[in-house]
Amino acid sequence: MEHLRLVARSGAYPGEGVRSVAIEAGAALAPVASRPGGLLTACRRLLARRPGDGPLLWLAATALAASDQPSALGGAVDRLRSDPTGERAAIALPDGAVVVTGPGAALGVGHGERGVQVVDGEPAAVVAADIVVCRACLWGPEEWLAPEGTAAFIDAAVSAGAEVWVLAGLGTVPPRRMWDLATDGLDPGSHGLELLDTSSASFVVGPTGRTSPERASARAEGPVVPELFAGRR
Question: What is the pTM for the complete model shown?
């Protein structure tokens, strides 16, 4: 239980932390995975503390919907560890591009030899950028949740005429029903998040590569498990 408490208290939504917190949650949930009631209760508590964490939501729903919950939990963790979204984005970057990464955005390796310059900077650095890369914590049909500070990078990108690429990794795009349940009554600011329109993105990059925001919204991942939100105030 102490392990679960530590995971629940993890910081807001920094960088690869969105994915790593879900992976850590998988390890913390393993001792209760063979007890459906205990697993459901533990997942509810984690999501109450981290309501905009897409990979965590996907992990919980995937495990709870399975007939063999311990195996499903372990398999979901393995898939999160091998999520290729950052690498897909790096490969898709055009040669010679100047790229600025926003809060939570981490690219894979393999772009340096093509003359791509990546700056992990402030919104002021966007004036010289061709592409601004941001990270989604949860991507919905018309809106998405991003780490606090992302909107400033997007505003700067619009002013500079730069494209906005959003990293929506494995587990970040839930079915509409799960998006509605996860965001119902949510105050993003109190959880270190910002709510943005999907139209703010030029492209979205997921585990299968780059696509349009509209197609990304149709890429629903994971089962619908409304029990995760039962009794929530």
Answer: 0.91
